[in-house]
């Protein structure tokens, strides 16, 4: 996947993360607004139902106390008694008395209601109920009559829905499915469906229903007024969710970028120790014996494929990841070849140092602790330094000198490729000079270029440095170098870099019996 695609995908994921978080917040705010309102409506509907029960209870106890009258019926005392009961009972407007002989009401003895209204239901305990009955007084609202025996009490139907509700709410009281009283509603017929289907909302309202016996109280809130609650909830939750969304987005982006970027892949490879070391033999030109090898790192991907160092070393050097890689190479050399090196004291292994290590000298501690107490002698380790490590010549000289004093051999790598401070070569603590393949390639091709390699060889000899020619691919090159007095060669003419086991075999076949001076710098 290209970097652009990775970034594009990551940005999309980030935006998607934010959108999802905001959508979830909106949904949660909406659900929260609904459930908060639903709870509130439920409280109101319970309260409305309680109001119905209180009104009926008051009617019932009024009738029970009226039954205590033992005096003359419809006498002025009886009427005064009925008036007292009416006044003392909040829910009732009037008391009526009617037996087979006489009839009167708290209004007086002249009351004439005609027939008693038709009964709609029985409440138990001998009480009967007539709802929305005509009053004997013309022009007033329908009445609710509660009756037992000769007494009846008239409850103002409006009182059944007389509860304090928020402005936008509506209330309907049903008895046996018929609306008997309502607040801010004329016709609650559509609500019957809501009650029968047990729904909590339809497209126009949110409902709360309380049912007791044959009574039902329904409180409704128009969906339009829910917007305020929703906006309030959304406003409260939006900043947090925006931050969460952005964080998710940023995390996804960072994760994806880090995961997909070569840097992240290299980091993972280091953590998982996916590096192995291969060894390219170095041979003595005069005898053809193997005197050592250069340790060359390889990255083995989880799928088994191998990545060459020039694909990741530059990035590792730019990002500082070269340091842990160097550490793994050093440890790899010790793990792979400790016994081989112990059994062949003249054998050396050359390890490539990065510029940063050459400047700081950090590598010394790493190598010492890797070798510590082991069988490998410091003299068997060559340290290859390129010109990039000599930018800060003073610190480089200091750390290489220190390494040299500890017995390590120092080789100048890729010599001749852009080395700008040849004059410093004399002062640098160096034992070996590695001629770059670019010069070896010119051998036998042009005499002019060949003279450059001749000069390099001459200069190395003047400085008393041993020489390793790199990238030797032909017998002619080998013969030329040998004739020029170059001591060692490395290249595909002899062998490519080999895994540790194969290198040990190669070495056995191509090494001379132990000679104390072999391989020394
Ligand atoms: P280098 O240090 O100059 O290593 C020599 C490179 O030349 C190696 O490539 C080797 O395989 C290649 N080579 C050797 N003989 C021949 C030959 O006859 N013909 C051709 N065409 N090539 C030959 P490799 O292993 O791919 O390493 C490339 C570079 O990666 C190395 O150049 C070195 O700069 C860096 N490198 C490798 N391993 C390490 C390491 O452990 N640490 C550091 N810092 N750099 C490393
Ligand atoms: Ca090298
Ligand atoms: Ca080199």
Automatic annotation (TrEMBL):
Its EC number is 3.1.4.52. It is a multi-pass membrane protein. Gene3D superfamilies: EAL domain (3.20.20.450). Pfam families: CSS-motif, EAL. Residues 259-511 form the EAL domain. InterPro entries: CSS-motif_dom (IPR024744), Cyclic-di-GMP_PDE-like (IPR050706), EAL_dom (IPR001633), EAL_sf (IPR035919). It is an enzyme of class 3 (hydrolase). Its main location: membrane. This is cyclic-guanylate-specific phosphodiesterase. It comes from Pseudomonas lutea.
